[in-house]
Every structure is written in C-alpha cells, then in structure tokens.
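Order emerges. As here.
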Amino acid sequence: MRSTSDGAAAASAEGLGPGRRLAARARRGVREACTIGVRAGLPPSWVGYRHVVPVSAQDHVASMRAKGVAFARCETIHARAVARNPLPFNVADRDLLPADAGWWGYSMRDVPARTSEETFIATIPDARIVPVHDWRGEFFPALLTRDQRALNLREMKFRDAHAAALRRGAPPQRFERATWICERVYDNHSHWLTAHLPKLVLLRDRGALGEVLLPRSPTPAMRASLRMMGLDPDAFRTVDGDRPIEVARLTILGTDRFRPELLRPVREALAPVAAAPTRRVYVSRERARMRKLANEDEIWPLFEAAGFQRVFMEELDFPRQVRLMSETTVLAAPHGAGLTNMMFCPPGARVLEIAWLGFPNPNFYALASAMGHRWGIVAAQPRGPGSPLERDMYVDPAAVETALDALARTAAAPAGPDPV
C-alpha cells in the first residue's frame, strides 16, 4: 500500500544528492519486494507491515462468516443515498460553485446532490487497533483484521507510521469485547462534533454504549458533551493512545460525516430548540492562531449594522456555546471550527461563511445542508504566508454588503428541500 507521502518522496527523489537518491531507490526496492511477497501469500508481519492489503468491513465479515465465525456480522443502519440540497442562498447557478474536490473527495459543486455513504455497525474477531500520532501530534488510527488486512474505513487508513509502530513492538492493550469509535483527530472540535458524537448518540439509542473505548485524555468539550447527553465521562473504559489495542470481539461503526440521520439526533440530544430563537451572531477569529480575517475591523461595522453581535468562542465553555447557538437563527463567521456549532442552531437557520475559494472546503456547506439550514458564501482572498489551510484572509467590504443583502432577502424564506 503506497501512501501519499511515499509518492511525494519518490517524485522528489531526483532532486536529491547521489547518496540520498541511491537510498531512496533502495527503499522503493524494499517496498516493491515486500508488496510482491505479500501478494504471493506472505503475512504482512513477515515484511514489517510494509505492504498491507485493504479490505472493506462488509467483505471481511463475509469472509469470517464463511470460515465459521458465527458472531461476525455487519448491519446496515442507513443505506447509501443521494441528497437533495439547496443551492447557497446567494449563488444562482450550481456551475458557479468551485468544482475542486481538494483533500475532501467531493467539492462544493457536489453538495447539492452529495452522496451520503452507508451507516453500518460491524463486529469482527481478533482485531488490532493501531493508534499513532503524526509529527504535529495529531491522532490517527488504523484497524487490522485477524488475517492482517487493513479495514478500509473513512478517516482510518493504514499508513507507513502504523507499520513503524507495529515494528517497534509496544506491548498491546487487550480486551475481550470493545466498541471503537475514534477516527483521525478525534479531539479536534469539528471532528468530535460531526464524526464522533453522532456515533455515541446512535449507540446510546441502541443501548450499546457499555463497551465503548475512549482515549484517556478527553478535551473539556468532549467531557461536557458527554455530560450533556446524560453520560458520565469517567464511566467509559479508556486506552493509551500510543499503544496497539487487541480485541477478541471488536464492534466498529461506518458513518458518513454529513448525514442528516446521524447529525440531527445530536442537536436533539444536546440542544432542544429555544422557545424564541432570534439571535444573529458573528463568530470572530481575531484570537485564533490561524485563518484570521485581516480586515475584520473594517467589515465588522457592516455586520453590526445588520443586527449581529460579535462573539469570541474562546470566552465560552461548551455548554454556553451550545446554548448560544440554540438561540441563533443567523450565524456568520470566517471559515473555522467555530462554524461547526451551527449543529445546535434551530432548523432553518442561515449560515454565512467567509472563505478563500482558492482552497474550497465544502464541509460547512454539507453540514449546513444536513442540519436543514441555508448556507451562503463570501469569497475572500488569502493574506500572508503559510499553507493553504492556515493563511489569513481579506474580504472585500462590498462583497460582504452584497451577501448581507442576499441574506436579508432570504431571511423569511423557507429553508428549501430537506436533504434525504
């Protein structure tokens, strides 16, 4: 299995000095030999896990049942479906939306008819969870099956770092039964709300929370969200996020991160609709580490004149953020994790995102649509150095005025077709 980093290394090898080029070619040769060996039938562990074959949960369950593992199963909760989402309230033609799928596998232009992947719960025998942290300290796990194949799940892919961790041979943590919900960067605010809480709500509603494993260091927002669901954060079994985990009978969930049937129950669990939601909130990124709006002082008076209050989410704990959003019918913000809190706005809210469309992230459009909101976009320009994900932005005040005018025209309109 060749990772993106492997491909980049190979592509840049010609720019290295003679010795390093030779070493790079040797590494590629070793990898190719390992791939040939595994394809010929060698266990991946014999070649240091330098090649591991991916497999879907459904196919693995079928193979285990064929081998007589009676408890292996895969239950479909929601079938694959295509949504019917409205266009942004300030975009008249779908072709005007960016078609660049970037890192996400789908584009803003795809959101009006975005495919929601299947929701399933699978139980498999003798699984191994391999958690690692990258050079930034970000968590990402992989799952290996009894026959040393990598379960191919969203945000859980087997990489070189997992192979290296297995070669180090840290003593595993062992459980007879467990349920695993954690994906890449589970402790990121946006990922916890959109990818992990939906799994917990689904498991709670099925009476299946008792075997869930969680990492030992939950964030304050994670702990607060569990308490708001009526759960005790300290009652969960916990694991060391730097050691492999071996489970004789492992339950996993396959979910789509922007599926209405998964996201809306989170709002119902944490944020019952306020009696008379009326707030218009602008979330500032002035105190953020990256993606600040360089001319916020210039454009804030436009929002203030339109009846918005400016909020710094850093000043609010998670329960107060949820309460504020439950009272908010219009939400505006530069692109950032604070926009994820639209999950707790009442259905039909308006969401206005300021973002650089040279790096078009479709996730908040998809999230707004899944929650039954209407989303609009204000195109910004990048400012300063940094990666595309981190650069500050500048937005033309005239573009903000135009978007606010469109917002005013749609404020009393129905939210449009409900996503399915």
Notes: Residues 1-14, 414-420 have pLDDT under 50 and may be disordered.
